[in-house]
Specification:
CATH class of the domain at 3-47 and 70-82 and 230-306 and 464-523: Alpha Beta
Number of strands: 18
Largest sheet: 7 strands, mixed
Distance between the termini: 31 Å
CATH topology of the domain at 3-47 and 70-82 and 230-306 and 464-523: FAD/NAD(P)-binding domain
Low-confidence stretches: none
Shape: globular
Oligomer: single chain
CATH superfamily of the domain at 3-47 and 70-82 and 230-306 and 464-523: FAD/NAD(P)-binding domain
Radius of gyration: 23 Å
Length: about 525
């Protein structure tokens, strides 16, 4: 194909995930010509809702499932009509040594929360420590969060803005385990806090890499995990609407096969297609971008190999299962995050087992019910019958454990481990509550790192496209791409996805920052 056959734009965006749609909407609203190229038949990437069971009227958030870190600024700027609902119960955590008792965090009833601590530990002192710990972190979040949609601050600027040098040092220079042990006294509650550092991250509490600290910081900054009404697909639909109405062109079914540093993007549909942009924004992971540049004839240094470390299980139940803890209703336990086998000791033991090539037993998991907060994802008959969805997220299953295994066998093995872990806190077999399709198959599915790699082109099943970075720069950056944390080794190629410096989660931050950098560059 000659250059004469190439379609030209100000910006070509490779990949159609939620960040790409955010970037496209901002750029098009600014009057720039922009095209989004998506390999699949629909946009959204991991932020989609689908009906996984034939003949069953339930739309589940199949991959990503909750919204955090999405700035109100982006919602307002793009005129997004989305409904994000806070869950009343933050979490419920049964005691692994005695699942007939546990800690229930009720955001609307401090007294009830203290009572659950007393019932579990004999007094409410740990409740006071946990509350003080979260209040301290909240001050940090209020200082950091507004900077996420601004040019990168320096570390010194952000440290001063936080105004708590002791906390800053604990989070940025020492392993997270130190902070948890000095702030909290019980292994169980330390584990509840630690899980925020392990979502999609394979690390121990005392990991010297501080990968767990970076993940923890993003979760702290993001605040509450909110339930999107209509599922994750509703968020994507709004982003797509905003981008199209602003004038962005969105092409699905286009598989990009190569990119060049001067802005040429080649792909295939039912025929070869070619695009040229003054800038290219990459919504795919850095590892995928490196492959595309290599295919375009550019010699690139291979980035670190990404590795996811999670399993996600989607279920449809005829009813919520009974808990061993008779003092806590299933509705309260499952509407927030149900932590199972996630004490700090259990989490670190699971990490050691997985590092040694073994599947953790018990598998640390967390579970929640979307349909309790948002019944709209179920059809009328299912709602009337009392059916509920259940989402399970398992930790410390690095891709290396299943990379060479048959995907179906791997999924079955991890699913069995996840089910076994959940049943340790249930008063009945989970299978008795799982609905069946009209054909008789169970309404349950597992999504492993191999599934994410195959379905979504996430290398190693890594939901963050690689390790998370600190949301600041070490020195004062001058170039727009560096100032916004979206630079690559090539001046005309910017990162706009989770691989950007402040990427990760369904936040739109990577897309917004890439658009701001692109507008500065195009205006030069």
């Amino acid at each position: 194909m000659s250059l004469a056959d190439t379609t030209r734009y100000d910006v070509v965006i490779v990949g159609g995930g939620h960040n790409a749609l955010v970037a496209a909407a901002y750029l098009a609203r600014a009057g720039r010509s922009v095209v989004v190229l998506e390999r699949l038949d629909a946009v959204g990437g991991a932020a989609v809702s689908e009906r996984p069971w034939r003949g069953v009227d339930a739309r589940v958030s199949r991959y990503s499932y909750l919204v955090s870190l999405l700035p109100p600024r982006i919602v307002a700027d793009l005129g997004l009509r989305i409904d994000l609902r806070r869950r009343r119960y933050s979490s419920y955590t049964p005691d692994p040594a005695d699942p007939s008792r546990g800690v229930l965090i009720d955001t609307r009833d401090a007294a009830a929360t203290e009572d659950s601590f007393t019932r579990t530990f004999g007094d409410a002192d740990e409740a006071a420590r946990y509350r003080a710990f979260n209040e301290r972190l909240a001050k940090l979040a209020r200082a950091v969060f507004p900077t996420m949609t601004e040019p990168l601050p320096t570390a010194d600027e952000l440290r001063e803005r936080v105004g708590d040098d002791e906390l800053w040092t604990a989070l940025t220079e020492r392993p997270l385990g130190d902070l948890l042990r000095s702030s909290l006294e019980t292994d169980l509650v330390r584990g509840v806090a630690l899980t925020d550092g392990l979502i999609g991250t394979f690390a121990a509490s005392d990991d010297p890499s501080l990968a767990q600290n970076r993940c923890f910081l993003y979760h702290v900054v993001g605040g509450d995990w909110n339930v999107p009404v209509g599922g994750m697909g509703a968020v994507t639909a709004e982003l797509e609407r905003a981008a199209r109405e602003a004038g962005a062109e969105i092409l699905t079914g286009v598989e990009v096969i190569s990119v060049t540093p001067d802005g040429e993007v080649h792909g295939v549909t039912d025929r070869p297609v070619s695009f040229r942009g003054a800038l290219v924004l990459s919504g795919v992971g850095p590892a995928v971008l490196a492959d595309l540049l290599t295919a375009g004839g550019t010699s690139v240094a291979a980035p670190p190999e990404p590795e996811g470390s999670q399993i996600k299980v989607n279920m449809l139940l005829s009813r919520l299962p009974r808990l061993k803890d008779a003092a806590v209703s299933a509705e309260a336990a499952f509407s927030g995050t149900l932590h199972v086998n996630e004490s700090l000791t259990q989490l670190d033991s699971a990490f050691i087992a997985a590092t040694g090539g073994m599947l953790p037993d018990p598998l640390p998991i967390e579970v929640y019910c979307h349909s309790l907060t948002d019944p709209s994802i179920l059809g009328p008959e299912l709602r009337e019958s009392g059916a509920q969805t259940l989402t399970l997220f398992g930790l410390h299953v690095p891709h290396r454990l299943i990379a060479d295994e048959d995907p179906v066998a791997a999924g079955a093995r991890l699913l069995a481990a996840a089910q076994h872990s959940l049943e340790s806190v249930l008063d009945e077999p989970l299978r008795d509550c799982i609905m069946r399709t009209p054909e008789g198959t169970l309404c349950i599915e597992a999504k492993t790192t191999s599934d994410l790699e195959r379905a979504l082109n996430l290398t190693g099943g890594d939901i963050f496209h690689g390790g998370l970075s600190w949301p600041w720069s070490e020195g004062r950056a001058t170039r727009p791409a560096a100032r916004w944390g979206v630079e690559t080794a090539h001046a005309r190629i910017l990162l706009c996805g989770s691989g950007a410096r402040r990427g990760g989660a369904v936040s739109g931050i990577g897309g917004q920052n890439a658009a701001m950098a692109a507008l500065e560059i195009l205006g030069e």
